[in-house]
Amino acid sequence: MKREELAQYIDHTLLKPETTPEQVKDLVAEAAELGTYSVCISPSLLPVEVPDNLKVATVCGFPSGAHDSAIKAAEARDSVAKGAAEVDMVINVAYAKTGDFLAVEKDIRTVREAIPGTVLKVIVETAALSDEEITECCLAAERAGAEFVKTSTGFHPAGGASVHAVELMNKVVGGRLGIKASGGIRETATALAMIKAGATRLGCSSSRDVIEGL
Asked: Which GO terms describe its molecular function (predicted)?
């Protein structure tokens, strides 16, 4: 794989709570230099100017997912109105832990219906879930009309992406939904392992290290 190809897997991400608009400008400049697929920033930092070949992604219900669905939908709608081409929403993890996957699906569908035509990625927080719970969440995301399932916020104390979780997600919905690995991907070897496992997108804040290590 060439550096340019690897770069196109990456959502160049900056979601620290203290992020400033000036830091976002630097992020965009670096993403343009590296040739990443997108930048991913917090909703309050939208809108942001980017080159034509760079997409803007944002997050929704982040990082806990424990927001009312209507609030998530409103947040996503506002973000799209401010230029976001993709929205990464966090599920209500408690619904998954209690086995209420119809509630997981309804939560996702509420956001899906608020932003028709926009790429929706569903963060299931895999490190906090069992394999069965991951499987059911992926199927709920597919039924609700999402385009991607995503491993992690990168903020959960249980951890971020794992090769096992990506392989499982790929087994469940691969070929139908995109799979985004995110959380703890800081070096080239980890990124390539995630892609080999089935990831079609990577969320990285250390994108330069990942790309230039190739």
From this structure: deoxyribose-phosphate aldolase activity
